[in-house]
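Why predict the complex rather than its parts? Because the way molecules touch one another can change local conformation, and only a joint prediction can capture that. The input here totals 1148 residues.
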Amino acid sequence: MIDAKVLERHGLKADEYERIVAFMGREPNLTELGIFSVMWSEHCSYKSSRVHLKTLPTEGPQVLQGPGENAGAVDVGEGLAAVFKIESHNHPSFIEPYQGAATGVGGIIRDIFTMGARPIALLNSLRFGSLDAPGTARLVEGVVAGIAGYGNSIGIPTIGGEVVFEPSYAGNPLVNVFCLGIAKASDIIKGVASGVGNAVYYVGAKTGRDGIHGATMASAEFDEKSAEKRPAVQVGDPFMEKLLLEACLEVMQTDALIGIQDMGAAGLTCSTTEMGSRGGAGVEIDVSLVPQRETGMTPYEIMLSESQERMLLVAKPGREAEVERIFEKWDLHAVKIGHVTSDGMLRVKENGVVVAEIPNRALTDEAPLYRRPMTEPGYLRDVTLLDLDALSRDGQKALPEQNAALLAILASPTVASKRWVYRQYDHMVRTNTINLPGLGAGVVRIKGTDRALAMSLDGNGRYCYLDPRRGAMLAVAEAARNVACSGALPLAATNCLNFGNPERPAIMWQLAKAVEGIGEACRALNVPITGGNVSLYNETDGKAIYPTPTIGVVGLLEHADRVVGRRFQEAGDVIILLGEGRGELGGSEYLNVVHGVVRGVPPALNLDAEHSLQLLLVALATDQMMRSAHDCSDGGIAVTLAECCFGTNGIGAEVSIAGVQVGRGPAVNVAAALFGESASRVVVSAVPEDVTRVLERAAAAGVPAAVIGQTGGSQLRIAVGGAIVIDQSVDDAERLWSGAIERYFVKRVA
Amino acid sequence: MRARVFVTLKPSVFDPQGKVIADALHSLGYDGVADVRQGKYFELELSAADAATARTLAAEVADKVLANPVIESYRIEVD
Amino acid sequence: MRARVFVTLKPSVFDPQGKVIADALHSLGYDGVADVRQGKYFELELSAADAATARTLAAEVADKVLANPVIESYRIEVD
Amino acid sequence: MKFGIVVFPGSNCDEDALHAARDLFGQEADYLWHKDTDLKGADVLILPGGFAHGDYLRTGAMARFSPIMAPVRAFAERGGPVLGICNGFQILLESGLLPGAMLRNRSLKYRCEHVHVRVEQNDTPFSSAASVGQVLRIPIGHGEGNYFAPSDMLERIETNRQVILRYTDAAGRLDDHSNPNGSVNAIAAICNEQRNVVGMMPHPERACEALLGGVDGRVIFESILRAVERPALQVAGRSR
Ligand SMILES: Nc1ncnc2c1ncn2[C@@H]1O[C@H](COP(=O)(O)OP(=O)(O)O)[C@@H](O)[C@H]1O
Ligand SMILES: [Mg+2]
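Output of the joint prediction:
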């Protein structure tokens, strides 16, 4: 009955099946096979990535909970913990943009309140194909509406994120969602089942046939056959989740629980197994007791269903009634579906008859673990070559005039204002948001304290495509830098690894190198990894996306009211550049947008210099010496300066920066000075009285710092090596930048 | 027994959804579509003895809950 | 010419709205309402020569814009 | 004085309203659960924003059946001050405590941003501290704030001076571009004929602290404090 076809449908390889049979000492029945298939899927078992993830730094005095639980946690002082995690919902969002993105948000929120934390902020990192390509706008519209529909309804502000448009994501968009919550450090709850005989409760939405094989789907490439997998679509119910959220947090106040876990990927299977193995116990449930939405559901379907908004919890003996009563208050019915056992087994019964019986270990520790072969991809030899002089020489074409180049970059959807996106998100609910989207890192104050938390998601697939190791390091650096720019000290990081098919040695190599880079950067910048998520098989018809690690960094502001934004505050302030430009154009937005070239090596990164810079930023903010701070990333210092002017009602700037020598043509050198993306640079503004002190502080910190100009006027004027090469009306540039994304969406069905 | 309830905005009420859809269709070249009005559609599973009782029940539910009399009107079909 | 398009979630797809409405009706004492499914309802004003053309046009529009084939199915009536 | 903040399942600005009333204005404030049937001696009621019952079916459509709404209605009929913010406004409309109805924003998109509203009337307990013509910068956050009333109803509302706030530009000028949702007559807030029940789409509780980017919402709460301190204002003399 279990033949090659059945195995293929379950995404299990022949040798993996032999492993199962060997372990069980018999042929599994279909229900058991289904359980194995989801638990051994890439999504749940991390079988390809685990050996590499193990190398990441996960410890530090600030870390209260590292990887392994539903989310990580760091100490943010005053007895409080910040609980946060990132999750991908790439495949579901491609199949059904609205519901895929919405249920992604629902899932990450559950991961946070499962830990006993009150979710207070959401971020999202999105990657799509070119906005000009047919279908992209529709996809973007659906994904953004889905994120908004869920987050707005449940009342958690979406305070930041990023959106990138690159052809490589055309057939395989990325939807990474991040949630952060606050808990009393002493109240953090784990997903454990222990205490033989203790009641195992099911609460939340009824179980339907939706999402069956979602976990295995998230572990398989797309192809024209993906259409058949469509019945897997799950529909989110934010109202149910809001009830669950409030009810669970109320129950957790009572200490009547031993453990609790949400049912995410692989639903009931994953939650029962993981809670059991974490508690060194077994869990026995009877599926006939599980609330069902549809009739005639088989044990197989019930165990594999990925219906949303469901929780599994274990109550302390004698406290059951109390738990049930609190859920009833919220019109939720906690149903006892089983109990904890001592035999370390996952035992599934139907009307008392055993239909599946598997040792937890077989599903967790014993799951396959692969050291997949790796080889450096051949394409690198070519794409890393970059002859800047060729840009102007070939076809004798002259470089575009620099003002035109600046406007082109500002109008490119990846750099342009994301207002059209974040305006659809409630980013103010809970009245904590003190750095609104568009001002850099998202910042929320913590009521009842003077403190605030800053957070940023960043990643650069193009850099990682050209050099996964350095690209990943740069992503960690940028996320931490964005946090530091707001005045917050970076505390810890989470990461979402979006890659192609790990069975290809070249992809595996990209993954390994990226993880190496993340590890090295996190160590140097003192932001340990507290958790994350891996999304592999991001390919369509054999074509992989750019390797895309998304990094989320969380930082702490001791004084919320000293938060710093990216915008210039007033005319007459002095503009200071921290760090040095080396005119590095490799993999830059400039090459991509202006020349249609994706080549070269990403900017160099000196982690010690980066760390000193970040500590300096925090010190300057703490002593209230900077009025604005904005890091130089996509588009270089020219774009950064423009963004500092935007949203200020037209405050301009007069700036003069040093020239660089990267090619023979003078135009190329000017372009490199303006648009080069050298790392570890921040544009800061300060009142004239503070300038000397700022420069002294920088010198003391060993951070290069130079006064490069002054705010004022209505033009953005930039001179390179003394000659004015940019002279732009801020209003005109801002109009272009603000409307660049919006214009793709007028006259579209929501 | 099943009742179908159609809730539509009164003709005097501007229908933003219908308008956006109509615009979208025109921009897609469907000029044959002169106008679009969007409404809501409900299928009610009723345990009622006969069509008449079903209709009365559906009407009561529509009046009280499914439609907002200020802006909407409804139609009921029973089978 | 007028076409009416009924868009409903496929039977296997969860309908949270219908569920909440049903719950509300029960708490109001309408136990006669066993189940509620919510859908969308569109009225299209079509400039079409005959019913057949109208139906084809409506179907095309429903496929392209009105319904989401992944989770919804639709029915068309022309008069 | 004491604020009663009504919490429906799905409300999500209840904590924000409580924070404003209690922590920022130093008033007593308590939640009223939608299944409660007494108002715990509240002097003023706030129906906060959110998505009561998920806003499924229609915004505010099911909240009006909650047990708490009977005492709320009675309180309103006695002239007690009731403020509905965003979803709270929608609930007041659905329960008939305020005239009119809400449609989807004409953009069909949820919109969260700061907007400008002009104070049209200050003889209500929620605008008495403001001056007529004053322009406030307050955030909105809604997908269904497109206020509508049939023409005869609208005429009554206007002649009774029941429009409290209108969307305008920063200078207080009406223009379609400054109307974020398509509301008829750019209506952002209205009151009932007795003028003691007010509904507004903007979120004053989100604009009470400089740290959050603005304090123009304070005037709404300052009005309440006045009104309840001097009940004379509460029944607002000039209403006919
Ligand atoms: N998907 C999104 N959701 C919410 N806010 C977003 C999103 N994408 C971008 N933003 C906001 O827009 C601003 C600009 O984004 P980005 O250009 O990535 O910033 P930076 O260049 O500093 O990393 C940031 O404040 C960011 O939080
Ligand atoms: Mg960025």
